[in-house]
Specification:
Largest sheet: none
Number of domains: 2
Distance between the termini: 20 Å
Radius of gyration: 19 Å
Helix content: over 70%
Shape: flat
Number of strands: 0
Number of helices: 9
Structural class: mainly alpha
Length: 275
């Protein structure tokens, strides 16, 4: 049943993504209503899969690659829907963010999905706290990535005076920059708390708060990039194009820390590679 419901959620997300693309080609208001409703229904089914998985496993389902991928997709959908209902005029964000949701949920189904015995080292209350905080922060940074792409497209079109349908669909540069900053001020504390709780868990599991494991090292590099971005925005007034590029680079580092380190490098976190 778990897999069937996950596939159903994926199908609904894929329909929402398709409608988002249709909206870009033919922007009609009723498309947005349907996109929001379809994604919300998909999100409800997606949430139900976590409850079912929790019931079946007797633990919070974020201990392997499949569960981590699907939780990331869930978090991204959550914040995407919040932005949709809170802000008007940014609904074109659907066409940028839903492909990431669909891709990550597809990836989650491409790796082993079975329930595996939990490694003793993972049996800690700090695990779900650490992972939830880290992945929610990552999901927010995925949105800053999408908004940064939108900013660069809009800035390029305005600079080249290519005023057309896409220009009118995309939000103003001011709104996009403000959204990026607001999301940064939420995502960065979550990422910071994720690293701190991860260090506490590391001390509990391995007897050391920090061991320069590849994932720890790349997490620190990612944190430093976002810390620099936030610092520059607060002190120097970084905005616009420069801030957008740094946000894009930061999300690239998040992807490498999340997937690249797990799949390409060995370390203390390698147990979470597949199961």
């Amino acid at each position: 049943m778990y897999l069937y419901i996950t596939i159903l959620a994926l199908a609904l997300y894929a329909i929402g993504m398709t409608l988002a693309f249709v909206y870009v080609a033919s922007p009609k208001p009723h498309y947005l209503k349907w996109i929001g409703k379809i994604l919300l229904i998909g999100f409800i089914f997606h949430t139900f899969t976590f409850l079912l998985r929790y019931y079946q496993a007797g633990r919070f389902p974020i201990t392997n690659l499949h569960e981590s991928l699907t939780f990331f997709a869930w978090g991204l959908t959550l914040f995407l829907l919040i932005l949709h209902y809170k802000y008007k005029g940014i609904s074109v964000l659907f066409s940028f963010a839903t492909p990431i949701v669909v891709l990550f949920l597809l990836l989650s189904l491409s790796v082993p999905t079975g329930l595996f015995p939990l490694a003793p080292i993972l049996k800690s209350i700090w695990l779900p706290i650490h992972v939830i905080l880290a992945f929610l922060g990552d999901a927010i940074f995925a949105l800053t990535f999408c908004i940064s792409i939108m900013y660069l497209i809009q800035e390029h079109r305005i600079k080249k005076k290519k005023i057309g349908k896409m220009t009118s669909l995309l939000p103003s540069l001011t709104l996009l920059d403000q959204l990026n900053y607001r999301l940064l001020t939420i995502g960065f504390p979550l990422l910071t708390l994720g690293i701190i709780t991860g260090s506490i868990w590391a001390e509990y599991a391995w007897g050391s708060y920090w061991s320069w494991d590849p994932k720890e090292t790349w997490s620190l590099i990612t944190w430093l990039v976002y810390a620099a971005l936030l610092h520059q925005r607060l002190t120097v007034g970084w905005r616009g194009k420069k801030a957008a590029w740094v946000a894009i680079i930061g999300f690239g580092l998040i992807l490498f820390t999340f997937l690249g380190v797990n799949l390409l490098l060995s370390g203390l976190h390698s147990y979470g590679r597949w199961s």
